[in-house]
Specification:
- This protein is an alpha/beta fold.
- 30% of the residues lie in helices and 18% in strands.
- 44% of the residues are buried.
Length: 526
């Protein structure tokens, strides 16, 4: 997040797009509700009638995969009505003229034709956002999990810069991370192209810095993304895979392909706290310790680094993740001798400028938000106050592209996936918690009453859903939460695994798969 969670409650306009915030990030949702109580306008863009729709001043129910067209339409109106911020654009940005030229074609009427949203609602949303003194953007994987995910995110950055809603309190472009330490994993180099602190593996300075720190010869080649790793297992260019705290059999698209790829591995190692469907395929399972069984830190969605303290000893042979990795590394011939997680944090601070001032003795209480470059620095509440990391913010001229897969006569229905309030990701943990599991015991398929009538199904009927990748059986929930022609399926339940159906096509830059839209057909099950 460019800004902090608490700032949301002070914003005059909140634009939520691609985020079912109350289900997936309920504590963030409380700040949205507080802002509403103070008189803030809430603009919601979501194909489903989620809980936030009842609080929204305008609910934009866009066709799946049409976010760029919606955002371009809003920005066309903002420019046309002169609700933009010329002073900010002049002083802090570049590329505006080329960007402006692309927007000329996205009238509210054209955006309406693509998105299915009435033009007057697009205009109203633009007015709320463009005229607010402070406006904040909140998004999640409904924006990123598309073949145009990078375009979607750049378009949101365009909207923030166009209106000057960046680099100030209660503004910003604020992605909500899907799990508790996703931000920390990325910060620490859990990406194929960077070292910790997003220092590129391809630059000589970064390569030398980490070679010297770790006393090792390091490659200057960018690594593989998850889809590329799976493809490598399939074609034999990857021989072994080490999976840590992840369950790709359930969480990755086109499950049939994933299982075939994992089965082809000469060695599959899984390190986890439960015997997940992926762990069941492993040659070796390493039992990790859960959050309450180890010391360490998490870096959350607002860049806040917080302490995690051991409450109980690990069960059985389980060990903290860092201890397992350290011993494996030592046995491979690269000796690691960290005495504690605190010692690891000291090394992080030494090699990662944004973490330079972070140490365990400073993490009592609320923790610290990076960038925190030295021990006297208080941490950073919001980013880009006086300048962007690249100097001036760059507008991107982006045109709408349709999803990789669209409906046709054979597969006439749109499918999107998401989460429910009681379960977390692949439900490895939450379905092992009886109280949470009792809330929602099995998967379900939302379909509109019009579609239910056409297909001759009623609430609770078993149906067969099929895509070009596979098919599943699941029970129906008949509801107007989805529009006619659109189906919704949560991905938590292995018995009705949504990712048997989803499309593995991915964004060409970020390589994130298009989980949020594919074409399916539906029939009543025997």
């Amino acid at each position: 997040m460019t800004n902090s969670i608490d700032e949301i409650q002070d914003s005059e306009c909140i634009f939520v797009i691609g985020s079912n915030t109350t289900s997936s990030h309920p504590l963030v949702a409380t700040r949205i509700f507080r802002a509403k109580q103070k008189g803030a306008k809430l603009v919601l863009a979501d194909p489903r009638k989620i809980q936030l729709a009842s609080e929204a001043d305008v609910h934009l129910r866009q066709n799946l995969g049409t976010d760029v067209a919606l955002l371009n339409g809003m920005m066309h109106v903002i420019l046309d009505r002169k609700w933009h911020d010329p002073a900010f654009i002049e002083a802090r940005t570049e590329g505006f003229e080329e960007f402006k030229k692309v927007l000329e074609d996205y009238t509210p009427e054209k955006a309406a034709a693509i998105t299915g949203i009435p033009a007057e609602d697009i205009i109203k949303a633009a007015e709320y956002f463009g005229t607010a003194e402070t406006a904040t953007i909140i998004y999640c994987m409904g924006i990123t999990q598309h073949t145009t995910g990078v375009d979607n995110v750049k378009s949101l950055a365009n909207l923030a810069m166009l209106t000057g809603n960046i680099g100030r309190e209660a503004t910003g472009v604020n992605p909500l991370r899907g799990q508790n330490n996703v931000q920390g994993a990325c910060d620490m180099g859990g990406l194929p192209n960077v070292y910790p602190g997003y220092q590129p593996v391809t630059t000589l300075d970064a390569q030398k810095k980490f070679s010297d720190a770790w006393h090792a010869e390091l490659s200057d080649k960018t690594g593989r993304t998850v889809p590329e790793m799976l493809d490598g297992l399939s074609d034999g260019s990857v021989k072994a895979l080490y999976v840590m705290g992840e369950n790709p059999v359930q969480s990755d698209p086109d499950t049939t392909h994933v299982k075939k790829a994992l089965a082809a591995a000469e060695l599959l190692v899984v390190q986890d706290i439960f015997l997940t469907p992926t762990a069941q395929m492993a040659h070796v399972v390493l039992p990790g310790a859960c959050f309450a069984e180890k010391d360490g830190t998490f870096s959350n969605t607002e860049r806040r680094v917080s302490r995690v303290r051991k409450a109980v000893d690990p069960v059985g042979d389980a060990r903290a993740d860092w201890e397992i990795i350290q011993e494996i590394s030592t046995r491979f011939g690269y000796e690691m001798n960290y005495e504690s997680p605190a010692a690891i944090m000291d090394e992080i601070a030494a090699v990662t400028p944004s973490y330079g001032g972070i140490a365990y003795d400073r993490l009592e209480g609320e923790g610290l938000q990076w960038p925190c470059p030295d021990r006297d620095h208080p941490g950073t509440k919001f980013l880009h106050k006086d300048a962007f990391a690249r100097g001036k913010g760059l507008f991107h001229a982006i045109s709408f592209k349709p999803p990789a897969e669209v409906v046709d006569e054979e597969y006439p229905l749109w499918l999107t996936t998401g989460r429910v309030f009681a379960h977390y990701h692949t439900a490895t943990m939450t379905r092992n918690c009886p109280r949470l599991d009792d809330e929602i015991r099995e998967g379900f398929l939302e379909l509109n009453p019009e579609d239910a009538d056409i297909l001759g199904v009623i609430e609770g009927d078993a149906v067969k859903v099929a895509s070009r990748r596979g098919e599943i059986k699941v029970r129906t929930t008949v509801t107007d939460r989805v529009n006619p022609g659109v189906l919704f399926l949560p991905f938590h339940f292995i018995e009705s695994n949504a990712n048997v159906l989803t499309n593995p096509a991915f964004d060409p830059i970020a390589k994130i798969p298009e989980f949020k839209v594919c074409a399916v057909k539906l029939e009543k099950a025997a």
